[in-house]
Structures are given as structure tokens and as C-alpha cells.
Amino acid sequence: MPAGRRQHQVVLACLLAAGGQTVADSTLLEALWGRDPSDSKHVALRVLVHHLRRNLGIESIIRASGGYRIRLAGHQLDADEFCALVDAAARDEAQGRLAEARQRYRAALRLWRDTDAYHGAADTDQVRAAANHLGEQRMTAYESCVDIELSLGLHRELCAELSAVATKNPLRERLQAQLMLALVRGDRRAEALTVYERTRRILADELGADPGRRLRQLYTAILRGPTPAVVPSVASAAVRPAQLPVPPSSFVGRHDELAALDAVHEKSRNGERPSGSVVVTGAGGMGKTALVTHWADQTRQGFPGGQLYLDLDNDIPAAVALARALVDLGIAPDDVPRQAETRAARLRSLLSSRTVLMVLDNVSSAQQARPFFPGAGDSMLVIISRNRLDGLVAREGAHLLVLNPLDVEPATRLLRAIAGMADSAPDDIRTLVELCHGMPLAIRIVGAHLRLGARPDALVDALRDERTRLARLTTTDGDASVRAVIAVSYRRLAAPARRLLRHLGLLDARAIPLGAAAALAGISCDTVLTDLLDELAAANLVTVEADGRVSLHQLTRMFAHQRGQLDDTWTDRAAAERRLLGWYGHATRQAQQRIRPTSGGAGDSTVPDPQHLFLPELTDTVAALSWVDAEAETIIGLIDQHVRIHPDLVWALAVNIRGWLQRRAPRDTWIAVIEQGIRSAALAGSSTGEATLHGSLGVAHSLLLQRTEARSAYQRASELFGRSGDHAGKADVEASLGAMLADSGALDEALPPLLRARHLATLLNDPDLIFKVELNLGYLHRRADRQQEALDAYTSALSAAERSSNRDWLSASVHTNLGRLHLLQGNLDQAEHHYDTAVRLARSTGDRMREAWALHGCSDICAARRDLPAAVAALQEAVTILEPLGDRRLDEMRTRLSELLSDDTAGQSPPKA
Fold it and tell me: Is the dihedral of CA 230, 235, 236, 242 positive or negative?
């Protein structure tokens, strides 16, 4: 056969076997050319499909999301025609029209050109499953036809054909019985007995089993006397199956989950419906089967009718599994109904009079499990699936039990138990548990390595590297592998969902907003994003949290990242990273405008980008701060990761979170982020970005009293702003420089930059710049003991703040300084008014640093009035706020708090200027 024709048959077989469902490009490529085909093969696949369309009709093969599906009208498929004929024959047979039934069965069987469906066309899981299913239908139809022909007296005509078919299928006892009956009716009794003996030996050799009751009874009847009229039909006596796998040797934790299973069992014992069923779901490796087998072993006595275990892996059809369940419960194989619906009804009848635990493992869909739900009675059904199977919860009322990662304590106990270690938990053991991220399978694999002699410290070193962690989380014989378990769920996804998962793996974050997920995948339609996330969540590969953020288990994220390295080009990954940085840049710009409306940001967000979905709704300052609080770790990680790769987008991110950094971040974090932003701005050639970020860096160093570093940063910012002609930027950093010099005691040096800043601010008539200059001049005058000049400057600053769109935040600073000024003058009531106002305004704008400074002033007021408990409480709150921030005043406040805690010193120490 020419190679091209052979490849056409492979593609066609894959499409036909899918039954009208989409077949992913990756599946077709693997079927044609094996794993990891070259990029050129994608083009070759399109050419093959083009040829098939030309032969079958242009509308026959449709391009769907990430693959192709076939659409054939009517009964163009011989497989469809075969099934239709068999169904019609079964109806004729049920109504006693045996001649018509025989005719239809024979017509159906003549459609087969070989004994195997899709013979040699394509070796894929889907094609093999479809072929096996059709093959079973063919043999069942043949046996039904032979039953009819025997009843019509056609035994002589059947002998030769039946002998050949029975020889090819020696384990089908129904066929052997039919052949024996045909032979004995044709006066060939000895040959019939020989068939029985041959079948007995084959069953013993290959299965270690004896012939079934039906075959044995036919054999006895032949030995005893006249020719039997029909093949005997006898059901085996009721049996008590005990099929559950061996429970895990070590099982810890999961108390809530075990209690949930107990509760469902109790409801099933009380006959409550539809409560006697539960879906145990969770990501691969979470210990679903271990949980169920452990629980079932503990409750074995509660199911006197036995325990059935059916593994439905590889998408075994429900009809096949139903037949096995009926046989396992004592129904003779030949008495199993042919139709799936009838089998399900028969199973419900059996379960109604018995108390049976039925466990279905590796269920892939609700349709696969639905026929097994008990009707009346107190049997219980437990379904184990990687997928959530929400349909069973909605329609059948099944209980949903989701397994999440183990907490640290039970995870540590499990690791020690598998490793055979003592109860102590050295640091290396705790670290190994953390590196397994609570996944029981990963913990068991690490425990096996330890039991086999691996050193804990060596395993820690091996697992720390995320690039190789999944490779290490595999047993030495490859029998258990975290990567392989996740890969099973990944392979079952449609191509678009796979792509989204790979892109989610690019970001090392616990959870990201929906909009960030859309940006990563380049999705601009919210319904498309929702559908894809639903598919991933249904497979327990992602979690969509209550606040709408998307999270991945860390090991799943590593798997997705590695798949992206294999399946996506560098250009694809870089484009995804840029889209993500752009989305966060747009969102942080909006946040910055709420946190510090007049400070400006990088990029223009006046018109939302139509590509950006689900941007945060930041209605006020508190909402903006809360949003950045939640995203800060991710944003800072993006800045660190992409400084050199995407510098033009990174410096913009750093500029846009300056307001949050100043109000909420520890000072060392603030400095580190700004320094990364400066590097990226320099690489991107943005002098504006460099200047803006150097100004922010100067503020951070000033607050830590690192005056040399602060002066250097301010001077560099002033120089860059001066080169670009940005007078507002230059005025801002000159004002900051003057304040820093005044704070350091260099009062004479502080005045010139402040006056230069005042000149520029007045020319620009910018209320925010005027505010900053007057506030800092007020501070300078207060330090120089020019109290009236200080009061005048603060009053001017407050007036400017009233004209600003950032009024409340600016006013909080002025009121804090006015409070200090009046306290120094002994005006306690006025000082209290200003400090209370400053606390209120700082809290309304989310400025934790200014809130702490104002609380410090409130404490001094209380101490001056000798209200010791109130003074201690206010200062303790201020210290608590500043401890994570690392503010310069922290040591001063701690010292003062110690003084206040001594009764004899309370109120004696005057406030510092």
C-alpha cells in the first residue's frame, strides 16, 4: 500500500473512531508519526485532511478547536449501519419474528470485511477502544443469530462455520455450547464431547478456571441421553464478591473525609435516596483510591452482600462494566442482557435485595457511572474520579468529596511511616514534606527512597531544583510517578485547555486573577475563558477560588511549565509573558491612580485595552490597596523574573506600585523592587522611568535614615528630570532632597533645594507640589525653632492639599506635623485634634506608616495627660504596625514604650522635636 494512502487511512480511522467528537491535532500527529513530531508534520497533517475532504466532501471533515471532527450524514458509516441492523434484529427477536431477526443479523454480519474493526488502520487508544467495542458487539450479534438458527433447525448448515468461529474464540463459552449443540443434533456426539474437553483444558491452562455451569450442564445432558432441545440457561447462586484492592499499609489523616464517607454509609443503611452514593474526586496523586480502600476495609462488615470493585480506566464502556458487575454478582454470562439499559435495570434489581458496596475507580465521565446507581435498598456506590462529575451531583444527588493536599502534620506522619523512621521530625524531613506540597503520592515516593537508603539531605538537594523535581518524584522502577499521574489528566484535555494550562505554568504564583489568566493565554472572550477554566477545574488541574482567582497545585504548575518548554516555542512563551505584564501594568496603573492620584504612573489607562478581561474594579483607595496587597507577591515576582527579558514592561510595573510600596511594604522590599525597576528602565532606555524610580528610591532610603544613599538617589533623579525638561519631576525630588537634609540636621543645606522646588511648583501652579514644598519647609522651620514660620508653612500646605485630588492622604501628613508642633508648644487640645484627624485620614487611605506616626503622637498626648493605659495602647498599636515595615522611628517608639511601661517615668520625658 502506498505510504500516502496508508496515512489517509490512519487519519480517517481516528476520526471515525471518535464518533463525531473532536480529535486533537496532537493525537493525529502521534498516530501518524509517533511522539514529538517535527513542526513540518503539522503542515503534512493539513495536506492529508485536504485530500480526505476532496474525496469525502468539503463539509465532511470540520476544523474544530485544536483538532478535527468528521460529520457524515445518515448511515454512511458501515459501523452505524451495523448497529442499526443489530438493534432492529433484537426488536424482531423480542417480538417473535425469528426469520426477520435472522435476516437482519446476517445482513449486519456481512458488513464486516475482517474479524477486527479498523483492522491495522491506526494504533491509538481511541481507535483500539472503538474497535474492541465493535468487536464485542459483532460477537454478541453472531451468538444471537446462531441461537435463532439453532431454534429454526439449521444445525447442519451451521456446523462448519460455527466450528471455525468457535476455534478462533476458545474462551467464549456460549459459542462452545452452541457448537456442541449443533454437533450433537447432527449425530456427532463424540465431536461435541471433544469440544467440551478442549474448552475445559484451555480454560484451565489460560485462566485456571473450570467451565461455567451452563457448559457443564450441557455436557452432562449429552452424556445422559437424548439431544438437548436448547442450551441450558441457569443463573449461578448468589455470590458474595470481595474484590477491593489491598488497602494502603500506611494511612494517616483524612479524618473529615472518612467521617463524610461514614455519614453517606449511614444514610444508605437507612434507605435514604439518593444519598447512598458519593463521588470522591481530586487531582491525580491525592490518594483517592487509598482513602476509599482504607475506609472500605474498615467497614467491610457493613456490606454483607459483598464489595465490588470495577476499574473503568481507558474509558471502558458502561455496558461492558455492567456485564462484569452482573456476572460478579452471580448472573450466568449467557443470561446477561444485551442492551446496556436492560443490564442497568437488572443490576438495580439485584442490589435492591442485597447490601453491596460498589466502587467504580478511574471514572472519566458521568455517563460512565450513571447506570450503576442503586435504586431501592441499602447498597452504596462510591465513584472515584479525577474529574468532579458535577452532573452526578446535580441529577443523581450524589455527595461530592474533594480531596485536597495533606496538611503538614499528617503529611509528616505519612512520610515517616513509609520511610520507617522514628517519630522525630528533623529539619530535612520537614523540608521534604514542604517540597511535596501535600501530595500523598509524592510523599509516598519520597518515603520509598528514604526506606531504600537515600539520605534526607541529599533528597532535599535533589528536590529543591524545580526543573528536576518532577523527575525525582518517581520510584526507581518507574512504577509510581507524579509526572505520569498528572500527564494522564493533561492528555485527556482538549488542545485549547492544554494550552491554557501550559501558559498558567509560566507564572510562579499561588493564585492569579481571571484577567491575568486570560492575558497569559491571549483570550479576549470571557465565555471562552470560563469554558476552558471549567474544563481544567473539572479535571482538578486548577481551582477557581471564591474570589475568582485561579490557582494551581505547585507540582501541577511545574508539570505545566515543563510541558510549555516542550510544546510551545520561545516566541509563544515570550508573547504570553508580555501579555501578562501588560495586563498587570494596566491594572497597577489603575491602582496607583486610586492610591496616589497625582503621582502619575507608567502607561495610559484612560481607555481600557479591549484585550484586557476582568480588570479589577477599584472604586476607592482602600479597594486599590487591598487588590495590590493580594497581588503584590506575584507582581514583585514578575519584576524580578523579567528585568532583562522584558525591561520596557517591568519598569512600568515598578513605577505603578510606588504608592503601595510606600504605604504597605517593608522598606527592604521597597528598595529591592525599585532597584530592579531602575535596572529595567536603564535597559529599556527610559530616562523618565529611571528618574521617577530614583526619586522613589531616595524616599525609601530617607525613611531608613540612610542619608548618603538618599542624597545620591535624589541627585540622580534631579539630573535626569533636568535633562528631559520635566520641571514637575525635578521640583518633586528637590523638595524630597530638602526634607531629607533638614531631617539630618543640615538645615542650611536644606533650604536651597526647597526654594528651587517652591519656585518650580509656583510656576506650575501644581497643588500637590506646592503641598510637598510647604510641608517640608514647615518641617525645616520647626527644626530651626521658627515656630510661627512653621505654622504658616503647614497652613499653606493644608490649603494646597484641599485643592488636590489626593486630599485626604496629603492632609494626614499635615495634621501629623501640626499635631507635633502644637504638642511642643503645650497646646494639648489642639495637638489631640490634629493627631486624631491624622489617624482617621491615614486609615481611610490605607497608609499604615502615617497611621503609626499619628498614633505615636496620640500616645504622647495621653502620656502628657498621665493617662498611662491609653498611652501604652496607642504606642503599642503603632509599634505593631511598623514592625513589618521596618520604619526609622521603630527603635525610638520601642524605647518610648519601655519608658511608658515604668510607672515612675510616665509623662516625665518630653516629646522629641
Answer: positive
- DSSP calls for 636-659: HHHHHHHTTTSHHHHHHHHHHTHH
**Contacts of 478 by beta carbon, 8 Å cutoff, 6+ apart:** none
Q: Per residue in 352-373, pLDDT tens?
A: 778 899 999 999 889 999 999 9
Half-sphere exposure of 632 (CA within 13 A, CB side): 20
Q: 309: helix, coil or strand? A: strand
Say which residues have a Cβ less than 8 Å from residue 204's Cβ, sequence separation at least 6. Answer: 210
Identify the three-state secondary structure at position 81.
Answer: helix
Amino acid 75: pLDDT: 43
294 φ/ψ angles, rounded to the nearest 5 degrees: -65, -45
Cis upstream peptide for 426 (omega within 30°):
no
* Dihedral sign computed on CA atoms, order 568, 574, 577, 582: negative
Query: In angstroms, rounded to a whole number, what is the distance separating the alpha carbons of residues 624 and 587?
Result: 10
Distance, in Å, from the CA atom of 812 to the CA atom of 830, rounded to the nearest integer, reads 15
Which of 60, 67, 21, 72 shows the shortest CA–CA distance to 45? Answer: 67
Q: Which amino acid is at 844?
A: S
pLDDT at 424 exceeding the cut of 70: no
Q: Which amino acid is at 665?
A: A
pLDDT over 70 at 233, yes or no:
no
Q: How many helices (H) and strands (E) does the chain have?
A: 42, 11
Nearest to 447 by CA among 417, 423, 410: 417
For 701-747, write each residue's pLDDT tens digit. 998 889 999 999 999 999 999 999 999 999 999 999 999 999 888 99
Nearby residues of 481 by Cβ (< 8 Å), 6 or more positions away: 445, 473, 474, 475
How far, CA to CA in Å, does 291 sit from each of 203, 247, 264, 295, 704? 36, 8, 15, 6, 54
For residue 814, what are the CA distances in angstroms to 223, 728, 754, 771, 790?
112, 21, 17, 9, 11
The 10 Å CB-count burial string (b at 16+, else e) for 302-330 is bbebbbbbbbbeebbbbbbbbbebbbbbb
**Beta strands at 23-24 and 67-70: parallel, antiparallel or unpaired:** antiparallel
- List % helix, strand, coil for the chain (3-state, nearest 5): 65, 5, 30
Give me the amino acid identity at 591.
Answer: A
pLDDT tens-place string over residues 60-84: 788 877 788 887 655 466 777 887 8
One-letter amino acid at 820 equals R
Strand, helix or coil at 199? helix
Query: CB–CB of 863/828 below 8 Å?
Result: no
CA 553 vs CA 117, 485, 501, 718, 775: distances in Å: 41, 13, 12, 46, 50
Given the DSSP bridges, would you call strands 511-512 and 307-311 parallel, antiparallel or unpaired? unpaired
Number of residues assigned to the chain: 913
Beta bridge partners of 381: 277, 358
Distance from C-alpha of 557 to C-alpha of 517, rounded to nearest angstrom: 13
User: Would you call 419 exposed, middle or buried from its count of C-beta atoms within 10 A (0-12, 13-18, 19+)?
Assistant: buried
Sheet containing strand 550-551, strands side by side: 511-512, 550-551, 543-544
Residues 142/109, Cβ–Cβ less than 8 Å: yes
Q: What is the DSSP letter of 511?
A: E
Long-range contacts: 107-110, Cβ < 8 Å, 24+? 108/81, 108/82, 108/141, 109/138, 109/141, 109/142, 109/145
pTM: 0.66
**DSSP at 786:** -
From first CA to last CA, the distance across the chain in angstroms is 97
For residue 430 the three cell numbers come to 520537614
* Cα angle value 802/805/806 (rounded, 5°): 85
